[in-house]
């Protein structure tokens, strides 16, 4: 219990200390107008309040990641707590804040455009394809998981395909309509449900005195589970997730002032970390240890853990509300995944999105591909999503590193976590069956050597970019013309 509570306290302290340090280092410009006003179009660029933006950002980035990921990560024991806390404060929240703020400085640009500007034009095409693929995988996964939970909640009385169809209809509307029509109106209520359900489970763990394991050398990782690199892909949302880099530009286009960035981007990542801690603790404490947890996961997946833990801690009614809160998570990330994909493709093709027809012809093919992807085995999709997700995080952190290097600021805050995850990404794809399935010693060697080469290339490009005085932000007077 002490490890669990200490972790949550550290996350909160991290927001007020390291988060403040990152904000000060970046340098907020209070008098600089944001894209919400300069590029206002009534569809994607609309100024909204800080509380509303914060709740939308939390729901956008969350998905099932801070619930399902930590539940599966609980198999690694209290080592999961370390990654959630350290990863969230020093990697994930930094990643989200810098991506959001750099986007604000560049008329709400998405990651492919930022990669093109700071890492080279070739990267625009690479990252564009990579980001759209990731968003399609996310959208598809976040159709399947909430539909399965709703099917489970109905005790199988309602056919699974009905829930899938219902979610797709909602996604189409949320993707095509202006951001303040559905997302801006419903998300504050969804956000309240999410926070209340997570806090209810957390308080239930404390009140019942759940036997949450403490951090020690004896139980650091039960059954000798290989922490490196698997833990960092099992738990992504709640610690570090590249998916967030595709979501923050949605809110960078609705943020009213740069000063609000720390609450919206850094703060909501900390909130997600707390949610992750709660569900990891629930999974570790309630199912008779590693073997019991493993059996339930094998039989019913993370959804069974969510249902059982919620009902046990909160009763029938409270448990149902908690499950609904978890169902909301993937739905409110799936819709913005498709919305982000639509915006990224529109930016890439330079198609204005004010007309409904312009949004429609870009969005419909995305949904058609997603329907096909729902027929693929979920576990296979999830593994590819994990790798694509963390690869995107690496790209975003290196974009932030380049920005800070050119600005002569402390680029190590982004480069260190970016390099660490780069090693993990290369090692993972070399060692896993979805990749090259090489022996671990060869994979580790490839990870370190590959990362070293790419970091050297980064510095070579960074020195050149600084010498060429690449502009860090779009001149406000040029925004209308550029859009």
UniProtKB/TrEMBL annotation:
<feature type="transmembrane region" description="Helical">
    <location>
        <begin position="264"/>
        <end position="290"/>
    </location>
</feature>
<dbReference type="GO" id="GO:0009267">
    <property type="term" value="P:cellular response to starvation"/>
</dbReference>
<feature type="domain" description="CstA N-terminal">
    <location>
        <begin position="4"/>
        <end position="164"/>
    </location>
</feature>
<feature type="transmembrane region" description="Helical">
    <location>
        <begin position="126"/>
        <end position="152"/>
    </location>
</feature>
<protein>
    <recommendedName>
        <fullName>CstA N-terminal domain-containing protein</fullName>
    </recommendedName>
</protein>
<dbReference type="InterPro" id="IPR003706">
    <property type="entry name" value="CstA_N"/>
</dbReference>
<feature type="domain" description="CstA N-terminal">
    <location>
        <begin position="302"/>
        <end position="426"/>
    </location>
</feature>
<feature type="transmembrane region" description="Helical">
    <location>
        <begin position="360"/>
        <end position="381"/>
    </location>
</feature>
<keyword id="KW-1003">Cell membrane</keyword>
<feature type="transmembrane region" description="Helical">
    <location>
        <begin position="189"/>
        <end position="212"/>
    </location>
</feature>
<feature type="transmembrane region" description="Helical">
    <location>
        <begin position="75"/>
        <end position="98"/>
    </location>
</feature>
<feature type="transmembrane region" description="Helical">
    <location>
        <begin position="224"/>
        <end position="243"/>
    </location>
</feature>
<feature type="transmembrane region" description="Helical">
    <location>
        <begin position="158"/>
        <end position="177"/>
    </location>
</feature>
<keyword id="KW-1133">Transmembrane helix</keyword>
<feature type="transmembrane region" description="Helical">
    <location>
        <begin position="411"/>
        <end position="430"/>
    </location>
</feature>
<dbReference type="InterPro" id="IPR051605">
    <property type="entry name" value="CstA"/>
</dbReference>
<keyword id="KW-0812">Transmembrane</keyword>
<feature type="transmembrane region" description="Helical">
    <location>
        <begin position="442"/>
        <end position="463"/>
    </location>
</feature>
<feature type="transmembrane region" description="Helical">
    <location>
        <begin position="387"/>
        <end position="406"/>
    </location>
</feature>
<dbReference type="Pfam" id="PF02554">
    <property type="entry name" value="CstA"/>
</dbReference>
<dbReference type="GO" id="GO:0005886">
    <property type="term" value="C:plasma membrane"/>
</dbReference>
<feature type="transmembrane region" description="Helical">
    <location>
        <begin position="310"/>
        <end position="332"/>
    </location>
</feature>
<comment type="similarity">
    <text>Belongs to the peptide transporter carbon starvation (CstA) (TC 2.A.114) family.</text>
</comment>
<keyword id="KW-0472">Membrane</keyword>
């Amino acid at each position: 219990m002490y490890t669990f509570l200490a972790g949550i306290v550290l996350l909160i302290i991290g927001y007020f200390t390291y988060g403040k340090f990152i904000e000060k280092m970046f340098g907020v410009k209070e008098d600089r107008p944001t894209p919400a006003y300069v590029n206002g179009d009534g569809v994607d660029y609309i100024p909204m309040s800080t509380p509303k933006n914060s709740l939308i950002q939390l729901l956008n980035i969350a998905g099932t990641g801070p619930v399902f990921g930590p539940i599966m990560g609980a198999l690694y024991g209290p080592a999961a707590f370390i990654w959630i806390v350290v990863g969230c404060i020093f990697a994930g929240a930094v990643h989200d804040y810098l991506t959001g703020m750099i986007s604000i400085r560049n008329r709400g640009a998405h990651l492919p455009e930022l990669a093109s500007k700071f890492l080279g034009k070739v990267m625009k095409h690479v990252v564009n394809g990579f980001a759209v693929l990731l968003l399609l995988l996310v959208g598809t996964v976040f159709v399947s998981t909430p539909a399965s939970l709703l099917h489970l909640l109905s005790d199988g009385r309602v056919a699974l395909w009905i829930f899938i169809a219902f979610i797709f209809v909602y996604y189409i509307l949320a993707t095509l309509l202006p951001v303040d029509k559905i997302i801006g109106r419903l998300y504050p209520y969804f956000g309240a449900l999410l926070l209340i359900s997570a806090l209810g489970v957390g308080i239930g763990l404390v009140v019942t005195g759940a036997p949450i394991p403490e951090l020690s050398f004896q139980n650091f990782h039960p059954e000798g589970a290989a922490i490196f690199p698997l833990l960092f892909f099992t738990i992504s949302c709640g610690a570090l997730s590249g998916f967030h880099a595709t979501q923050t530009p949605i809110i960078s286009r609705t943020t009213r002032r740069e000063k609000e960035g720390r609450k919206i981007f850094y703060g909501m990542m900390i909130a997600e970390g707390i949610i992750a801690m709660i569900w990891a603790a629930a999974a570790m404490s309630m199912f008779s240890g590693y073997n019991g947890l493993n059996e339930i996961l094998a039989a019913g997946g993370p959804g069974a853990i969510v249902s059982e833990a919620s009902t046990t801690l909160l009763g029938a009614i409270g448990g149902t509300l908690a499950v609904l809160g978890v169902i909301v998570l993937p739905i409110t990330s799936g819709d913005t995944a498709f919305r982000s994909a639509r915006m990224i493709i529109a930016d890439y093709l330079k198609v204005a999105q004010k007309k409904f027809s312009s949004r429609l012809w870009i969005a419909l093919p995305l949904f058609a591909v997603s329907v096909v992807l729902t027929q693929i085995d979920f576990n296979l999709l999830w593994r590819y999503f994990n790798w694509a997700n963390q690869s995107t995080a690496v790209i975003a952190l290196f974009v932030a590193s380049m920005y800070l290097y050119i600005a002569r600021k402390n680029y190590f805050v982004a480069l260190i976590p970016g390099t660490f995850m780069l090693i993990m990404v290369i090692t993972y794809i070399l060692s896993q069956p979805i990749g090259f399935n090489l022996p671990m010693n060869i994979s580790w060697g490839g990870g370190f050597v590959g990362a070293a080469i790419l970091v050297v290339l980064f510095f070579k490009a960074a020195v050149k970019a600084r010498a060429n005085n690449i502009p860090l932000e779009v001149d406000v007077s040029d925004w209308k013309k550029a859009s």
